[in-house]
Amino acid sequence: MKMERLSQDKIRIFLTFDDLTERGIHKDDMWREIPKVHELFSEMMDQAYMELGFDATGPLAVEVLAMPAQGMMVIVTRGKMNFSHGEDAIDEDLEEVYELEVTMDETDQVTYAFHDFEDLLRMAKVINPLLTNGGTLYSYKNKWILLLDAADMEDKQLQLIVAVLSEYGEATSVTQAMLEEYGKTVIESDAVKVLCAKF
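C-alpha cells predicted for Adaptor protein (199 residues):
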C-alpha cells in the first residue's frame, strides 16, 4: 500500500492486488458493503494519518479506480464540516467520523514505469509479438512510462503481458491525464513496435 498527499485535503492511495489478497478481498468486493472493505478503509485512514498527517474526520469523498493489472487507486478528498447549524450539528459531525460519498470507476489502461531505457527495450522485444497496439510512451519524473490499452486484450494475453511488464518494470498508478499534463510524450502510438524497429 503506497500513499501520497496531493493537497492539504486530498490523498491518493495505491493498493496492489497483493494488498487486497492479503486481506481476503477480491477486486469485485470493493464495490460491495462488507466488513472486510470497511476494515481496509479504516486501516488506510489510520496509515494516512500516521504517514501523512491526514485527518479523515468529517465528510469524505472517495474515488476508487480499478486498473486491470496494477490494482486499485483510491483518492480520498476531505470535505469541510458544516458548522452553520449550531452546537447540536457540531456534536453530530464529530460523532460520525466517516461520512462517505464513494464513486467507483474502472479503466482498461495498464501503466508501467521503467527506470532504465535498456529494461524498456528488453521488455519491448519480448512483448512485441503479443501486442496488436503498442501503446504510448511517456517520460515522467526521470522514468519511462508505458501506457497500454487492455480493452481488446483477452484475459490470458493480458496476464502474459503483465507478467513480462512486471519482470522489467513496476506498476504505477499515474494516470494518462497526469502524464499528458506533466510528462512528455515520447512515442504517441504503437510505442512497443516503434522501439523494436528503431533500436
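The beta strands are 2-7, 10-15, 58-67, 71-78, 98-106, 109-114, 136-140, 143-149, 170-171, 184-187.
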